[in-house]
Design goal:
The complex is a heterodimer of chains A (235) and B (263). With 235 residues, chain A is α/β, with parallel strands linked by helices. Chain A is built from 8 helices and 9 strands. In chain A, strands 5-6-7-3-8-9 form a 6-stranded mixed beta sheet, sandwiched between helices. A 3-stranded antiparallel beta sheet of chain A has the order 2-1-4, with helices on one face. The longest helix of chain A is centred in the last third of the chain and has 16 residues, at 167-182. Chain B is mostly helical. Helices cover 80% and strands 0% of the residues of chain B. Chain B contains 10 helices and no strands. In chain B, helix 4 (61-91) runs antiparallel to helix 6 (105-133), helix 4 runs antiparallel to helix 9 (209-219) and helix 7 runs parallel beside helix 10 (226-257). Classes of the chains: A alpha/beta (235), B mainly alpha (263). Chain A binds chain B through residues 11-13, 43-44, 47, 50-54, 56, 73-75, 77-79, 81, 83, 85-91, 95, 98-100, 102-105, 108, and chain B through 3, 6, 9-10, 12-14, 16-17, 20-21, 24-25, 92-94, 96-103, 108, 252, 255-262.
């Protein structure tokens, strides 16, 4: 099974953001890193994968399903936005999980159990009942990632997940992502500038430049190699 | 069948979370109650309920004003609930996650509005009970008015929700629309038949106007006119469908050409 981008073009109004995107991404346990300077279309790519946005031209499809990609993506992907956004401010993490799982038609009880279990691995158990608005920037990020991951969808889309995290939390995040891939068999897409985190978890890199996929590297890279690859592409 | 169960589950979760928020933010709940009470006092003291009663040939002017006030209050709660809800969700980044729901966005906002309205009914019941304590009318009459308004507002809220969806569409296209929705809510109070009988046929396009007239006629013992009921239903179904159509169009356009991000 794979997600196929066929001649995908995405504009924001008249401004082109992505164009000529042709790629087949196998749906197997992997961590895929979207890399590139600000404004190259990394977040847009994640939103397209989540079905939140539609291509302006071209198509995205799952090669094993006949229906629309949007319908498939609603059920099989979870998108975690960048920044301190995406959860209800006056609710705690468990309540947010309850709300979003009900919207996806997933058992709220199962989501709660997932959140409690994952919170232990993510050093978040003590904050589960804290309202989202009262969490620090880093903890807000952790809460949003937990809620997204607890939905139990095959694909998890994380937009700049390590922003705002301290060193210990970045290490927690890296091992959390690896657990999702290795234990749960998830496919995780990460958009990030954090070379340390990326080199620790990513198996497959997509380097974006001027709205296109400039380079597709299907293996792990040490941090120094990643940095020199980055400098080589964006010099 | 499974989908309907999931829909009821969303309603149950919305109701549960709304209840938690009402208890958790009791100050906010009290301020909402005070706002509705203030609007009620303005309607009672700055209008002429006796004159309204005269126009209908009854001494029940205050109760007839209350009926109008109830329809308007619950109607603006539906209108404001969805238009403000969409605007807030877009600003806080919730809208893009909600787009990933099993159901269309308008269904989610409709369920959310239904859950929120139940709490508005509690505020209105409290205000009505306090008013009946001051002997403006009996508790039995009040309960009858509330029950009838509740039943017919199930129809009028469809239309008010539809208008709210049009404002929500504006929020997606032009971003901040909340103040325009507030202005409309005040205008509706002045232009509808809350404290006057219907004096112009054009008033019938306001979703709850027909409902107020029907409930007042029931109180007068005239029963329900089939033609008035049909007009009332048609007006509301049109607003409801129009609102959903415009909202779905704007969401589709935003997904195709926008980002949900640039608020």
């Amino acid at each position: 099974m794979a997600i196929v981008f066929d001649q995908v073009k995405k504009n924001y109004g008249k401004k082109p953001v992505l164009h000529d995107i042709n790629i087949k991404i196998p749906l197997e346990p992997t961590v895929i890193g979207l890399v590139g300077p600000n404004g190259v279309g990394k977040s847009t790519m994640l939103r397209l994968l989540a079905g939140v946005l539609e291509p302006t031209k071209g198509t995205i499809r799952n090669d094993q399903t006949k229906g629309s990609y949007f319908k498939w993506a609603c059920l099989h992907t979870s998108f975690v936005a960048s920044g301190e956004r995406g959860l209800m401010y006056r609710l705690n993490t468990l309540e947010n999980g309850m709300y979003f799982s009900s919207l996806k038609g997933i058992s709220t009880k199962r989501t709660e159990n997932n959140i409690r279990k994952m919170a232990q691995d993510f050093n978040f158990s003590n904050e589960l009942n804290t309202f989202f608005q009262n969490l620090s920037t880093g903890l807000k990020k952790k809460a949003a990632i937990l809620v997204g991951a607890a939905m139990g969808t095959e694909v998890l889309l994380l937009d700049e997940p390590s922003n705002g995290l301290d060193i210990a939390a970045q290490e927690d995040l890296a091992s959390f992502i690896l657990d999702l891939k290795n234990k749960n068999g998830n496919i995780i897409f990460i958009s990030s500038h954090d070379t340390q985190m990326l080199s620790g978890v990513v198996d497959h890199y997509l380097f974006l430049r001027d709205g296109q996929i400039e380079k597709n590297i299907e293996h792990k890279m040490a941090e120094n190699d990643l940095i020199s690859e980055y400098r080589g592409i964006y010099k | 069948m499974k989908k309907i169960k999931k829909l009821f589950n969303i309603f149950g979760v919305q109701l549960y979370l709304e209840l938690k928020l009402q208890i958790r933010y009791v100050n906010s709940a009290i301020s909402s109650l005070v706002l509705y009470a203030g609007a009620f006092l303005i309607v009672i003291f700055f209008t002429n309920p006796a004159q309204l009663g005269q126009a209908y040939g009854t001494k029940q002017g205050v109760l007839f004003t209350i009926v109008g006030f109830l329809f308007w209050s619950i109607g603006i709660a539906s209108l404001g609930g969805c238009s403000n809800g969409v605007e807030t969700d877009e600003r806080t980044g919730l809208l893009e996650s909600e787009t990933q729901s099993l159901f269309p966005l308008w269904v989610l906002y409709f369920i959310q509005t239904l859950a929120e309205n139940l709490f508005v009914w509690i505020y209105l019941l409290i205000i009505g009970l306090v008013a009946s304590f001051f002997s403006m009318f009996t508790v039995a009459e009040l309960l009858k008015a509330i029950l009838l308004t509740f039943a017919f507002s199930l129809i009028s809220n469809l239309g008010m929700f539809g208008i709210g969806m049009i404002f929500a569409s504006g929020s997606i296209r032009f971003k901040r629309m909340g103040q325009w929705a507030t202005i409309l809510q005040a205008l509706l109070l002045m232009l509808s038949n809350v404290y006057f009988p219907v004096y112009n046929a054009f008033q019938e396009v306001i979703p709850y106007v027909g409902g107020i007239e029907i409930v007042r006629q029931i109180f007068l013992g005239h029963g329900v006119s089939l033609s008035k009921l049909m007009l009332f239903i048609v007006v509301n179904v049109i607003w409801f469908l129009l609102g959903i159509l415009i909202f779905n169009y704007c969401i589709k356009k935003e997904r195709k050409n926008g980002s949900f991000d640039a608020f």
